[in-house]
Design a protein that fits this description.
The protein contains eight helices and twelve strands. The protein is an alpha/beta fold.
Length: 313
């Protein structure tokens, strides 16, 4: 049999690659956490080939006349998967999308929602909208495609157009949504969304459950204050940006890590130690959290970020 030409071999490889990139993200079943609210709890790890770049917690609230989506995921593929799960439960249209912050693993699914429901209002903190336009969207598109080795290719940044601010409230299909916008928290662009009738609070990445992520864009003091703000809200169900939903205990646990690390770093910093000299002491102070996903990757970075924060005070 005649061997294929070099050109034909390249075409076959490109065709196979295109088919792989076009593959649908596998389904992740939503969990009902309140009478009208479902959450799709993503895997705990960072974006990867194995998880197809999907690792946040998309959620949706079914109202009397539509669906409000919170953080539809890290890619157009993730957004399509979220829509498939919604359509298994209701044929109502998506009327609103809320993005909790600028990190692209939470909001690039906007593209799929916009393609299916172009009239849906896509909402976020004004600083999130600004940062996305000023380069954060492009950076995160590159991050997602690189970490997934091209799986998220084809995703484009559909940036929110409707700003929402501290203490703002709006109604969708008879359900009230209240905005809480803690300053300088996880990313500096954060909102938390309270749904009083559901006794529920969407925390964004101000709280994670069983997992750690980057702190480079926020502050420990601001993130601790955001946790305190969440604990002051009368809610029964708390939905973190990553990890399982639960009671206010998940907020207290994450706050415990942040405060233990920051307070220990401050004591060591005040004693004249450099970040690399204090890591063993700080690690002992946060020992209950060493089994959380991403600890080994992020712990050293968190110490360095805390030192930089103290130096800027």
């Amino acid at each position: 049999m005649r061997q294929p030409t070099r050109l034909a071999a390249i075409v076959l490889l490109l065709t196979a690659a295109s088919a792989a990139f076009a593959a649908e993200l596998r389904d992740h079943a939503p969990v009902q956490v309140a009478p009208r609210t479902w959450v799709i709890h993503g895997p705990l790890g960072d974006p990867s080939v194995e998880n197809q770049g999907f690792m946040n917690n998309p959620a949706f609230v079914v109202t009397s006349d539509g669906v409000v989506v919170i953080d539809p995921g890290s890619s157009v593929q993730a957004g399509r998967m979220v829509l498939r799960q919604i359509r298994k439960l209701t044929r109502k249209p998506v009327t609103h999308v809320l993005n909790t912050h600028v990190h692209g693993d939470h909001w690039f699914g906007n593209q799929a929602i916009h393609d299916a429901y172009p009239k849906a209002k896509i909402m976020a903190h004004p600083e999130m909208i600004r940062a996305a336009h000023e380069g954060a969207a492009a950076r995160w598109l590159d991050i997602m495609e690189r970490l997934t080795k091209g799986y998220t290719r084809g995703t484009r940044a559909v940036i929110p157009t409707v700003p929402v601010v501290e203490s703002q409230a709006f109604k969708a299909g008879g359900i009230e949504f209240r905005i809480h916008a803690p300053e300088k928290a996880h990313s500096g662009t954060d909102i938390m969304i309270e749904v009083p009738s559901e006794n529920l609070l969407f925390l964004g990445d101000n709280v994670m459950n069983g997992r750690f992520g980057q702190m480079n864009d926020g502050t420990f003091k601001g993130n601790i204050a955001a946790c305190d703000r969440a604990l002051a809200i009368s809610a029964r169900v708390f939905v973190p940006g990553h990890g399982k939903s639960g009671s206010r205990e998940i907020v207290s646990a994450y706050r415990g890590y942040l405060s233990s690390l920051f307070e220990t770093v401050k004591r060591e910093y005040d004693a004249g130690k450099k970040d690399y000299e204090m890591k063993d002491t700080v690690k002992a102070a946060v020992a209950p959290y060493t089994g959380w996903e991403g600890f080994d990757l992020h712990f050293g970075r968190h110490v360095s970020v805390a030192v930089l924060e103290l130096e800027a005070m």
